[in-house]
Amino acid sequence: MLTISRELRDKIVAHARRDHPDEACGVIAGPAGRDRPERFIAMTNAERSPTFYRFDSTEQFKVWQQMDDNDEEPVVIYHSHTATEAYPSRTDISYASEPQAHYVLVSTRDEQETEFRSYRIVDGQVSEEPVTVAE
Amino acid sequence: MAIEVRIPTILRTYTDGAKQVEGTGSTLAELLTDLESRHGGLRERLVDDGGLRRFVNVYLNDEDVRFLSGLDTPVKDGDTVTVLPAVAGGA
Fold first, then answer.
1. pTM assigned to the model
2. ipTM of the complex
């Protein structure tokens, strides 16, 4: 299960809306081993594409260094789908390499409603999990 | 002195759980060959016939080696090589 504050959930949704129709992506870091998303980091989608995303590698290096220095880990890795449902694509699954992370997908295909869903992706197996939004 | 190599969680099965290993070589390709002699299987996760795999980022100090010379990038004692899984996907 993913437990996330409303504030962080809203930040993900706002980022996804802002970058629509391109895919938006980012990380929420949290203390290692605590499964608690705390520090929101919007990342640059180096692909700037409506169908693909990739963290800018130089930016990723810096962010991963910071997390290492702070004894944090990527608790949430999020990205948006802008024309399809919020479900991991085959590419998403093949790239997923943080087994402890919650992979959050949001879909901005509908102008009003934003789908917000979370998954674990381990060894190519996807399992959806409930999302609890804490006030 | 040697070259320090930082290994991401997902590849630590090849390093007996070690977060950091050391190796030698004058290019990244040589370093990976040297690492392979002690950490069998690691090289194949990083490299395929066409060079570095798309799924991984390899950095020399703080620079992505794709912006340097890829596998031919010169390395030397005291350098740090960091491996990170690329974070990517698509609809």
1. 0.92
2. 0.91
